[in-house]
């Protein structure tokens, strides 16, 4: 079967998203309808459970494969999440997924428990599919969007995204272990994979040891400087200078579960009745030992069965009193290693049941299929002992699920020290599953543990799982990535308190960026307009006593006046501070003769670049030019910006380059919004100020704020502003609340006079 050949522009995306998750699989499964139509159902799994709340909160999009080979699907909405399917052919599924991902990387990253296979054609497919995912993300992402790439199948995507969309904030999370260098170095494409990962701003791992292994691999292969969790990577994007570095964070963010959701389900009467039915169906043994795993050689299923069988053989456990329930959900059954594992385990189950079972009691109840969540919770409640004996595991969420369900404070967790969960769940009975005698002793200890000791351990485990749930995991990662985490809708309580305190100042300056702050971003800049709510709130602020309003923009002053239509008394700053409109009139910084000559040369160069790229637009400003790329695809925009920068650098020196959203600006006189804000503040004689902006160019203004001032960043992206709102609608609400607080402060002051 030939690969799916998808042109980068074939997949139509009618909306740009500020938050995108990219993973191998979508959070939904395809269902063929009886009438031949298309249906989708939410798919279970730790990653889906972890990220669905994030996506809904951020109004984001999820990019991934739909689970059906040789089929293409249009983007759609499902349960409040935008879904963007990426197609895979049957041959790509075989080579990229079953081959390189699961027969090369999986065994290598799990300490070569099974030998990895290295095939060049698998690597070629891996590169090709990673590029398809990266292109889908680049098309769907808005300017400065956050893209969170998931897991080992997509390790090349971060660099591919950075090359095509340097404006993006890129995160990567590795859900499986990262091996020591002595193992990792076996990979023929070891440099390419590390280089791909270093395209991210933050690389997350399950364990501190995994992050350390990665940093050591970076030093060995590239010689980059690492200090703590930070790696200095040479910056090669179009806006960087020679010798610049990007600081990449590589650290542990141990993933977790929706602990409250599991506990809520465990408390349901029907689930508790089902747990009692399970015990009765097994003959009401004194102790039920439970194992829940994907059928995978890394899970240590053979080791636990060997230990359990020897305990029965030696008489330390009796089949009349103890039953092992093993749930082994199907996994990668087209891979030969997994077929062999299934045969071996089923032979072991048959032998042990044949040797030790009685008519009323099985030794092992073996279940080779998956279950819905409510049935799994009932199994957790029915089990007295949970066995997690992974030989190597990134985290193992089953261990945390069992703990979350045991609201009764009972149950014992036997946990492999080679599972990431063992770093957090230290009150479990920790074991080395390779040590069969030690594993046998641990099982007997768990079976015979006194109730008081079981309760003491389980209470400590539950505190850990509940305090560090999936919401904390995702918020911690996003906060490290963006400085913001999940931005909630509207005005938060801390921001409201800051507004109310600010409103009490004697003379207030309200300084606002325009595009993306007051006005939603549009394809045609001349069509941008502030929202009606924002305009009404600004009018109230202008009318409030001792309150000045200023618009601070990168637009030329004429353009700003045209789109903003400011009323009487509004101060204006255009062209990043080169132009000002104050109470005394308009002011433009005069250029020296050398600067005027340089401006003529700059104009000639950029007019030629713009002429070579249909869809771009050149904006002339008093001290420079702005090259707008909003009408171009992301890859074409990045290429054009690089070309413009290279040509200007080759012919002119001393030109300031500034990146914005879908724009690159060149100026012969260096000014910024910070300098402009300071001048506006002095002119207004403000005793306190608030500045609100969405662009990287607004960071200079945030840096110029005094103690007692407020800085508010609009949207995602790194920022030094202490407060955040999501979009222009939230900015309008912010201005309304500020106007109300300012009016109340003025009314209170008048009563005292």
From TrEMBL:
Its EC number is 2.4.1.15. Pathway: Glycan biosynthesis; trehalose biosynthesis. Keywords: Glycosyltransferase, Transferase. It comes from the Bacteria. It holds the Pfam family Glyco_transf_20. It is an enzyme of class 2 (transferase). The keyword 4Fe-4S does not apply. It catalyses: D-glucose 6-phosphate + UDP-alpha-D-glucose = alpha,alpha-trehalose 6-phosphate + UDP + H(+). Belongs to the glycosyltransferase 20 family. This is Alpha,alpha-trehalose-phosphate synthase. It comes from Agromyces salentinus.
């Amino acid at each position: 079967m030939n690969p799916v050949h998808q042109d980068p522009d074939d997949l139509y995306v009618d909306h740009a998203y500020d938050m995108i998750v990219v993973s191998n699989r979508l959070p939904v499964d395809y269902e063929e309808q009886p009438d031949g139509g298309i249906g989708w159902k939410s798919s279970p799994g730790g990653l889906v459970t972890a990220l669905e709340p994030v996506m809904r909160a951020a109004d984001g999009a999820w990019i991934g494969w739909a689970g059906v080979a040789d089929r293409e699907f249009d983007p759609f909405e499902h349960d409040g999440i935008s879904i963007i399917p990426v197609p895979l052919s049957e041959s790509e599924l075989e080579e990229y997924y079953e081959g390189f991902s699961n027969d090369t990387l999986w065994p290598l990253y799990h300490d070569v428990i099974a030998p990895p296979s290295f095939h060049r054609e698998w690597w070629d497919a891996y590169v090709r599919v990673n590029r398809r995912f990266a292109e889908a993300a680049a098309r769907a992402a808005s300017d400065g969007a956050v893209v969170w790439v998931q897991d080992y199948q997509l390790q090349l995507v971060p660099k591919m995204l950075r090359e095509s969309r340097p404006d993006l904030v890129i995160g990567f999370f590795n859900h499986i272990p990262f091996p020591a260098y002595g193992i990792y170095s076996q990979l023929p494409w070891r440099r390419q994979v590390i280089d791909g990962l270093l395209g991210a701003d933050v690389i997350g791992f399950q364990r501190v040891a995994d992050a350390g292994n990665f940093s050591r691999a970076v030093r060995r292969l590239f010689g980059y400087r690492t200090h703590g969790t930070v790696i200095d990577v040479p910056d090669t994007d179009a806006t960087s200078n020679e010798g610049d570095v990007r600081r990449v964070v590589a650290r542990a963010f141990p993933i977790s579960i929706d602990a409250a959701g599991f506990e809520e389900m465990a408390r349901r009467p029907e689930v508790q009745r089902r747990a009692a039915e399970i015990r009765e169906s097994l003959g009401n043994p004194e102790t039920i030992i439970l194992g829940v795993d994907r059928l995978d050689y890394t899970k240590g299923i053979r080791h636990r069965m060997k230990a359990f069988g020897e305990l029965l053989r030696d008489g330390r456990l009796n089949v009349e009193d103890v039953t092992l329930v093993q749930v082994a959900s199907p996994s990668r059954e087209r891979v030969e290693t997994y077929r062999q594992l299934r045969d071996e385990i089923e032979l072991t189950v048959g032998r042990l049941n044949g040797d030790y079972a009685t008519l009323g009691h099985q030794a092992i109840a073996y279940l080779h299929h998956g279950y819905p969540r409510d049935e799994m919770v009932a199994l957790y409640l029915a089990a007295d002992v949970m066995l997690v004996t992974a030989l190597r595991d990134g985290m193992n969420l089953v261990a945390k699920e069992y703990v979350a369900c045991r609201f009764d404070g009972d149950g014992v967790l036997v946990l492999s020290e080679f599972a990431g969960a063992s770093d957090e769940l230290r009150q479990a009975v920790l074991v080395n599953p390779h040590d069969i005698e030690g594993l046998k002793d641990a099982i007997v200890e768990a079976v015979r543990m006194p109730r008081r000791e079981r309760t003491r351990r389980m209470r400590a485990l539950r505190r850990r799982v509940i305090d560090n749930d999936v919401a904390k995991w995702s918020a911690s990662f996003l906060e490290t990535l963006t400085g913001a985490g999940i931005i909630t809708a509207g005005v938060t309580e801390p921001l409201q308190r800051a507004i109310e305190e600010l409103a009490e100042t004697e003379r207030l300056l309200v300084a606002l960026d325009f595009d993306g702050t007051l006005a939603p971003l549009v394809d045609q800049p001349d069509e941008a307009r502030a929202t009606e709510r924002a305009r009404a709130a600004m009018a109230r602020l202008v009318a409030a006593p001792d309150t000045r309003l200023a618009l601070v923009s990168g637009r030329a002053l004429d353009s700003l006046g045209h789109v903003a239509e400011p009323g009487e008394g509004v101060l204006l700053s255009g062209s990043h501070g080169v132009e000002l409109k104050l109470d005394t009139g308009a002011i433009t910084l005069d250029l020296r003769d050398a600067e005027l000559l340089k401006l003529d040369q700059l104009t000639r160069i950029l007019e030629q670049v713009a002429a070579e790229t249909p869809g771009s637009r050149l904006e002339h400003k008093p001290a420079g030019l702005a090259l707008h790329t909003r009408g171009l695809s992301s890859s074409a925009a990045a290429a054009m910006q690089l070309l413009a920068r290279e040509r200007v650098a080759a012919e002119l020196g001393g030109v300031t380059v500034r990146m914005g959203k879908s724009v690159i600006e060149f100026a012969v006189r260096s000014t910024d919004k910070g300098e402009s804000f300071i001048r506006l503040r002095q002119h207004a004689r403000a005793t306190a100020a608030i500045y609100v902006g969405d662009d990287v160019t607004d960071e200079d203004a945030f840096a110029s704020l005094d103690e007692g001032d407020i800085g508010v960043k609009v949207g995602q992206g790194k920022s030094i502003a202490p407060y955040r709102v999501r979009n222009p609608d939230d900015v309008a609400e912010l201005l309304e609340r500020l106007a109300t607080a300012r009016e109340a402060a003025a009314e209170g002051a008048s009563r005292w006079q």
